[in-house]
What we know:
Organism: Endobacterium cereale
Distance between the termini: 61 Å
Strand content: 15-25%
Mean pLDDT: 90
Domain EAL: 24-274
Low-confidence stretches: none
Protein name: EAL domain-containing protein
Radius of gyration: 20 Å
Oligomer: single chain
Largest sheet: 8 strands, mixed, barrel
Order of helices and strands: HHEEEHHEHEHEHEHHEHEEH
Structural class: alpha/beta
Bound molecules: ligand C2E, magnesium ion
Number of helices: 11
Helix content: 40-55%
Shape: globular
Amino acid sequence: VAKSTGEGEARLFESSMETKADRERLLRGELQNALTNEQFHLDFQPIVDAETGKIVCCEALLRWNHPKLGSISPTEFIPAAEASGLIVSIGRWVLEQACNDASRWPSDVKVAVNLSPRQFSGFGLAASVAKALAVSGLTPDRLELEITESVFLSDTDDNIRVLNGLKSLGARIALDDFGTGYSSLAYLRKFSFDKLKIDRSFVTDVAVSDENLAIVRAIIGLGRSFSAIVTAEGVETNDQCDCLRVEGCDQLQGYLFSKPVASAELIPMLREAQSGQFTATCSAR
Ligand code: C2E
Ligand code: MG
Ligand code: MG
Ligand code: MG
C-alpha cells in the first residue's frame, strides 16, 4: 500500500509498472477511483460532410488524466475497464456527459458515443441511453452509438435485440472500424446499420495503394446498397481527402480537419464551422 506522501506513491507506481500484467493490475485498481475523483473527461472530434465541409457530428473520446501516471490512452485503459466490468459504469458516465454536452451544440450537429461489448450484457444499456437522453433533453436522432463487430462475437441474438431496442429509442447505430474484423459482411445481414465507419488502416494508403482504394470503393458501394452513411476515419492528408470525395464517401473524420478537442474548445469551432470552415480543406471535386 502506498504511503500518503507523493514521493512514496510515485515510487510505488514506478516499481509497479515493471511488467504488462502489473501495469494492467495497477490501472484496474486506479480505475475504481477515477470516476469518483473526476479524472475522466471527454474530448470531441468533428466529423465533416464531405460535400459541404460542415461539421455534422462529433465523436466523444474518453480521456483519463491520472494525477501521478499522467494521461493514459483509451486503447490501454478501456481493455482494463472491460476486464474488470467497470466499463459499464464508466460507459454510463460517458453517455450522460456526451448527451449533456451535445444538448448545448447547434441542433444540426450529432454526437457519437463508443460502446463496448461488455455494456450489452444484462438489460441496463437501453435504460442508460434512455436516461441520458431524457436528462439532457437531447433529441434521440442526434445520438449515434458506435459499436465494433466484437459485439457479435458472443450472445449474438441477445445483442441484436439490444441493438434493435436502441434503434427504437430513436438513436442511430454505426459499425466502427469496419473491415478490420473477421467477417464484417455477415453482420450487415443481421442488423441494419445507419452508418459504416471505414477503418483508418484502409484510409491511410487510399491514395497510393490500389488494394486499399478497391476496399474503400467496395465499402462505399456497400453503404449505398444498405442505405447507410459511410464515414472515413483517420483522414490526415489532402490526397486522402480528395480521393475519398471522388469515391463518394459521405463523411470524413481525421486530423486533417481537427484532432479531438476539449468541449470548451469545440463550441467556438462549431459556431465558425457551421459557416463552412472546412469547405476549403480539400480541393474542390
Ligand atoms: P475509435 O472509436 O475508432 O476512435 C478513433 C480513434 O482514432 C481515436 O483514438 C482518435 O483520436 C483517433 N484518430 C482520429 N483521427 C485520426 C487521424 O487522423 N490519425 C490518427 N492516427 N488517429 C486518429 P483514441 O481517442 O485514442 O481512442 C482509441 C479507441 O478507444 C477508440 O477508437 C475507441 O475504440 C476507444 N474509446 C475511446 N473512447 C471510448 C469510450 O468512451 N468508450 C469506449 N467503449 N471506447 C472508447
Ligand atoms: Mg469510434
Ligand atoms: Mg473507429
Ligand atoms: Mg478505428
